[in-house]
Amino acid sequence: MRRSPRETAESARRISRRALILGGSQIAFASVLGLRMRHMQVDQADEFRLLAEENRINMRLIPPARGRIFDRNGRVIAENEPTYRITIVREDAGDVDDVIDRLSKLVALDPDDVQGARDEMKRTPPFIPVTIADRVSWADISRVAVNAPALPGVVTEVGLSRYYPQRELYAHVAGYVGPVSERDLKRYEDPPPVLRIPRFQIGKVGVESNHEEILRGSAGAKRVEVNAVGRVMRELDRREGEAGSDLQLTVDNRLQDYVQARLGTESASVVVMDVEKGDLLAIASAPSYDPNKFVRGISTGDYGELRDNDHRPLASKTVQDAYPPGSTFKMVVVLAALESGMVSPDDTVWCPGHLEVGGRRFHCWKRRGHGYADLEKSLRESCDVYYYEMAMKIGIERIAEMARKLGLGVSHDIPMSAVTAGLMPDKGWKLRERNAEWVIGDSVNASIGQGFVLSSPLQLAVMTARIATGREIMPRLLKSIDGVETPIVGGESLGLNENNLRHVRRGMYAVSNDRRGTGYRSRVIADGLRMAGKSGTSQVRNITAAERARGVISNADLPWNRRDHALWVNYAPFDAPKVAVAVVVEHGGGGSTVAAPIARDVTLQALYGEDPPLDAYPTSDRSRIEAQQDRISREREEREAQRSSRA
């Protein structure tokens, strides 16, 4: 049907109005977009430029060089060595299996490392490098570099890793580092970012752990440009980190080496202390282990071998273990008695070989007894009954007070792991810890270093140094930090009567130099170097009635781990003390027969600074000592050759 002219005009008018409205709306919308774009591109340009820059540039931490550790003469104990590793980037490699196969023809690859790398590739983005071979040689790196075109995605890297050139000598002192673990991170409320760096090493035990913050240094940083998925495109700039501080210990490397060699296969420990400053000149536990095995993570087999060894090579026996001090404790008891004023040096005690106390018989080590014994004789011949009587006369509180004054029963502040306080019991301790009253038999046992009393070799060395000087000598292991000497702590007078100390020292001198002394066979005969000492034998078992009936009570008739511990302490020279020595040989038997010869040899080595002349020893010992020195010298040369070849 045809429209009329009027209807056509009306329709055109409506369309024009709609077109006008639609066009106006489009223009308005375009204007709003234009204004918004202008606001974003002009007014907010700086803000969006900054956001884009943050997405484009990343900050990466650079691990700092760890501080080194030296002995007192500058010999390196712990250092950093360059290590080379081979990594593979899955994205660039393409056919990973083919690349690994070609790489294996150039470099010996550990199957476990290869499988570990494959597993890690599955967990990480394809552009992240994954280590496939660590601690490879420079020759391996060179072969990979020459064949780089045939090894797409394979990259060689260089870094620093801890190395201990002295190996077993300082495992218990310097300790070792290892990869950061979750347990390490939990030690910090807010872990430092540097600990998150892959393969970063942190101190685990010993000086490495105790001075971690000093040795670690501060991390550097580099700015890298990355693309949208986080892949590094190029490095923009770099700021190197600040290396950790170098530490110098008080130990003497040559003496430490000698001590370790002298102990041989024994389960034993030795502490050598400078009685003037308190410097620990040697502090050795045997057997030891190679800390280098722990740096990258020790294998299960190697760790199991160390863990299951009955001589406990992982234990730091010098500071971590505490033993009944045996008769080395007698100087504490007699000094407490003298200082109390209730006993004089000339007072005597009758020793028939035992003492009846509370219906129980306490034996002297010499079954026939020592007869009448005064202070000097009681030390010289180690009469137990004399000290039973002293303990009953003065009581445990005076003994405990003197022991703490001499350095027993307290934890000394040196940067080693698990430093024990030992145990110096008193009435309050037993009531608190055992919920029982102290009885007279406890005092009698304590008087000869048995019962509840426990001391570490370090504490025994401190005790000996304080008796030798009458001063509060404190042990020091850290000599300097970056060449700045650490302060010497203590040194004040103990406030003990010098005459009383003199009597005790004369008794210790008689132990080593009187023919009737228990340590006479291990004496020093060099003029001006005579030593004053005391033996100790600490019982580690209760002898059963069946054993007594069979007569099986001697150490030789018992399994190794049930034999008595052998102890010895001494200082020398007697007239002008320079060093104090403590030796503990686990399950060694008698202190005078096993520990004393070791202590005598170590003392002379410390005083001479080298192998002492044979005329410092009794004539009967010289052939044995000469053979021993030759053996140790050969072993030292072999170890030095191994270390040199490794370096």
How would you describe this protein?
With 647 residues, this protein is α+β, with helices and mostly antiparallel strands. Helix content is 39%, strand content 20%. The chain is built from 23 helices and 23 strands. Strands 2, 3, 4, 5, 10, 18 and 19 form a seven-stranded mixed sheet that branches. Strands 12-11-23-22-21 form a five-stranded antiparallel sheet, with helices on both faces. Helix 13 (330-340) crosses helix 15 (384-394), helix 13 (330-340) packs across helix 16 (396-405) and helix 15 crosses helix 18. The termini are far apart. 38% of the residues are buried.
**Rounded Rg:** 37 Å
| Number of discrete helical segments | 23
> Averaged pLDDT, please?
88
The major β-sheet equals: 7 strands, mixed
Name the poorly predicted regions. none
Q: Strand fraction band?
A: 15-25%
Oligomer: single chain
Q: Count of DSSP E strands?
A: 23
Judged by helices, strands and strand pairing, the structural class is alpha+beta
Distance between the termini: 109 Å
Give the helix/strand layout.
Elements: H1 5-43, H2 45-56, E1 57-62, E2 69-70, E3 76-88, H3 90-93, H4 96-104, H5 111-123, E4 130-136, H6 138-146, E5 154-163, E6 176-179, H7 182-185, E7 201-205, H8 206-210, H9 212-216, E8 220-226, E9 232-239, E10 247-249, H10 253-263, E11 268-274, E12 280-286, H11 292-295, H12 300-307, H13 330-340, E13 349-351, E14 354-357, E15 360-363, E16 371-373, H14 375-380, H15 384-394, H16 396-405, H17 427-433, H18 440-447, H19 457-469, E17 471-473, E18 478-481, E19 484-485, E20 490-493, H20 498-513, E21 532-538, H21 545-550, E22 565-572, E23 579-585, H22 591-608, H23 622-646
